[in-house]
From TrEMBL:
Domain of life: Eukaryota
Biased composition (Basic residues): 411-421
InterPro entries reported in the protein's UniProt record: EamA_dom (IPR000620), EmrE-like (IPR037185), Solute_c_fam_35_mem_F3/F4 (IPR026505)
UniProt organism field: Catagonus wagneri (Chacoan peccary)
Domain EamA: 68-222
Protein name in the entry: Solute carrier family 35 member F3
Keywords on record: Membrane, Transmembrane, Transmembrane helix
Amino acid sequence: MKKHSARVAPLSACNSPVLTLTKVEGEERPRESPGPAEAQAPAGGEASGRTSHRCWRCSQAQLKKIFWGVAVVLCVCSSWAGATQLAKLTFRKFDAPFTLTWFATNWNFLFFPLYYAGHVCKSAEKQSVKQRYRECCRFFGDNGLTLKVFFTKAAPFGVLWTLTNYLYLHAIKKINTTDVSVLFCCNKAFVFLLSWTVLRDRFMGVRIVAAILAIAGIVMMTYADGFHSHSVIGIALVVGSASMSALYKVLFKLLLGSAKFGEAALFLSVLGVFNILFITCIPIILYFTKVEHWSSFDDIPWGNLCGFSVLLLTFNIVLNFGIAVTYPTLMSLGIVLSVPVNAVVDHYTSKIVFNGVRVIAIIIIGLGFLLLLLPEEWDVWLIKLLTRLKVRKKEEAAEGGADVGLGPQSKSRRARPSFAR
């Protein structure tokens, strides 16, 4: 399988592990139009017409991707921030983070049915559920999804998924949602460090700087509350959640490689099945040992639980499959933009104090996150851009000098005929 850079989302890249997806690109870049000296006179008009038509089609496709990108960013930001705030609200009535994690993860089972519904609506060659399932099972190997594959290639990721979400939700109980959401953004720095050491990915100085900024931001965030035990525990929990999410992504790339949309949907549904079969016993044990206890099932805020699960499912769907309609970088921006949204909500609903240290820590972590979004060849693109700007300035200066030089000559040429007479 070819490895493609993609996103793995925790609850998806923010708390659910983001899957590596493959996408076939059917569009070609339009060639640059030939210069005046290269174009032949008879075909000049036709060539320029074709070039302009292709450029127009290209710009339309880019505008469409940007439009969808804005929509995806808003959806990622609102669903992630909404799920975080709703979880905080739920814990006021239902203090059971692991049970909430288990309940929301069960909804992963819907990934493959939703994908198949989309396949039936959009695909020209429609397949039965059984045919589509068998085709997607090839992702797990030649023998498909066997019992051995289930326990060796799916179960470990199910455990990591549960730990990622549980630690994140437990952290929300300890500290405010602004700190939790911004600290979870360090997940991207952890992914880079693990990829560099385990997968031997390309070394990039700018990403090392981003990782240092993330670590500095964590230390400053701890200092912002004066190293109180309650705050330190909450920060440790969310950093642990970010680490589990990063481990999920790197292991997925190492063991399974990349996945197509149907394969990713099936994999996430398998995680839901694993959760139902093997994790269900843990909330039951926690209930009877009164670690997570509630007086009556009628007191459970089912609306909040279902709302949180729907928002989290929406977040994971958009983050994992949004690559079909827009750029991955735009989707990642939705995660970091949820931080100011949570900050505004916390400002009006809690006693959070935005002192100088906390604000600087948020800015540093956000800057590190944005640096990690830079493509691998960003320095080459920057050099090309600066070179083009220099060439354009020289051309404009040369044209300006030529116009000044031609001014007196044109006047003398016009005067010569009259002078000769």
